[in-house]
Amino acid sequence: MSCVFCRIVAGTEPSQTIHEDEHAIAFLNLAQATKGHTLVVPRAHHRDIGEIPVETAAHVMRAAVEVSRRLAGALGAPGVNLWHASGKTAWQSVFHFHLHVVPRFEPTDLTPPWIEVEHPLESLKGLAEEIRAWR
Q: What is the DSSP secondary structure assignment for residue 92, as one 8-state letter?
């Protein structure tokens, strides 16, 4: 198995697992963005959001909700970020679908990945039409 997350699911790669159920497993990320940074992955291998079945994604999200509540309670985190990246251009580095659950302790413990620039609603009309038209 070349996928590190598949090896963790199989039990052949060590991890600090904090949640397991029939569909998903959650373990502490080796690269802790904040204390308790956890990855939630489906037990079945799916490369990214384009490949994961909706039902499986729903199971992963349910696990992420449970993990978020557990992290907030255990660590006293007043906030939590969920993060997902699909594709190399979106910074995905392990190509097994996963959600990052990142406990937040201070508004400044992470840097926002984008700068908020509000666009007038009317200027977004063409973009919305283009997206709705795609099938």
A: -
